[in-house]
Write a structure and sequence with these properties.
Blueprint (H helix, E strand, L loop, with lengths): L7 E5 L3 H12 L8 E6 L8 H11 L7 E6 L6 H16 L1 E6 L2 E3 L3 H11 L6 E5 L15 E4 L7 E4 H4 L9 H5 L2 H7 L5 H10 L6 H11 L3 E5 L4 E3 L34 H11 L3 H11 L3 H11 L2
Parallel strand pairs: 1-2, 1-4, 2-3, 6-9
Antiparallel strand pairs: 4-8, 5-10, 6-8, 7-9
Helix pairs in contact: 1-2, 8-9, 8-11
Organism: Priestia flexa
Protein name: Sugar transferase
GO molecular function: transferase activity
């Protein structure tokens, strides 16, 4: 592999234990010592977060094991969406490509190798929007022999992309009102899961502040695809309801793949995988309750209740 490795950008905030696990796993990657690491740490949103943020900053102040380490501390709270948009933009415009993690993602020791190889292989394929290190637990056809597959939905749990794709994003979603009037377009968008249009609507009406749904929507309107591994190289440990947008569920838990994956340059969307992927992300009863609770302003109350009841 060429030594032109992509930098890793890590976003952290107020979860010291998650942050430590994330960094420890990343350090075990075979290319860690050759990789530049950029860490962006947000400032406390309220006085209750001050101590946890201080603990996180103590952890990242002592990070080692990477080629170069750069840390940026926010002086006021930006929120996750603003932090990601600004942080990724800053680094990707210097390096041309980037690998992105948040503070609750445990990576396989093959994660960086897979991501860098995929960034190199698919760089000139204009149909590829991003690379995902995570894959949900979906059913694959017994005849499917590839180690990667394509879908129309990006993933924010350990991902990578290139400067040209990132800089083409309309973060204001100016086409929303044309899109929302089209039943055909909404159906096509929801081929990645029927939660997508609900999340986009929540974003438009400021019930959530998500960079990821805007990112996925831009992928859709540009008719591009994300590469996923058939075996996950990322596990999200933030599904304990500790994060900004996380919820408590074991649905997303996966076993980490600790072996090299073979990347195919010639891929097509597999209809059976597409169906299984959509089924995984389609809303269940809890999901619909979440949609309506955000609409009526009681989401945070229900999230707190679920955390207490551990459901």
């Amino acid at each position: 592999m060429s030594e032109n490795l992509a930098p890793v950008v890590l976003f952290v905030y107020n979860r010291p234990e998650h942050t430590q696990y994330t960094i420890n796993a990343l350090k075990k990657n075979r290319l860690a010592a050759k990789t530049d690491l950029f860490i962006f740490c947000d400032a406390p949103k309220n006085p209750e977060d001050t101590d946890k943020v201080k603990q996180v900053r103590n952890i990242i102040n002592n990070v080692n094991g990477f080629k170069n380490i750069s840390i940026q501390y926010a002086h006021s709270n930006k929120g996750l969406a603003s932090s990601v948009i600004k942080g990724v933009s800053e680094i990707i415009n210097i390096y041309g490509k980037v690998i992105v993690l948040e503070d609750d993602l445990i990576t396989s020791s093959f994660f960086l190798k897979y991501m860098n190889e995929a960034l190199n292989i698919y760089a000139n394929n204009e149909k590829i929007w991003s690379i995902s290190g995570y894959t949900p637990n979906i059913k694959f056809p017994t005849t499917y022999e590839e180690d990667v597959y394509m879908t129309s939905r990006g993933c924010s749990w350990g991902w990578a992309t290139w400067k040209e794709r990132w800089n083409s994003i309309d973060w204001e979603i100016e086409s929303y009102y044309t899109f929302i009037k089209s039943r055909k377009k909404k159906k096509m968008f929801n081929e990645g899961g029927n939660d997508l249009t609900y999340m986009l609507k929540d974003q438009i009406f400021k019930r959530i502040d998500s960079w990821a749904i805007r990112w996925v929507y831009n992928q859709f309107i540009q008719d591009k695809y994300t590469i996923y591994p058939t075996k996950s190289l990322v596990n999200n440990i933030g599904t304990d309801a500790s994060g900004t947008h996380s919820s408590s569920t074991q649905k997303y838990d996966v076993y980490l793949c600790e072996e090299k994956l073979v990347l195919s340059e010639s891929l097509a969307v597999n209809s059976e995988i597409k169906k299984s992927f959509k089924k995984f992300y389609d809303l269940n009863l809890i999901g619909y309750i979440g949609v309506f609770s955000r609409k009526f302003g009681i989401y945070l109350l229900l999230k707190k209740l679920r955390k207490q009841l551990k459901i």
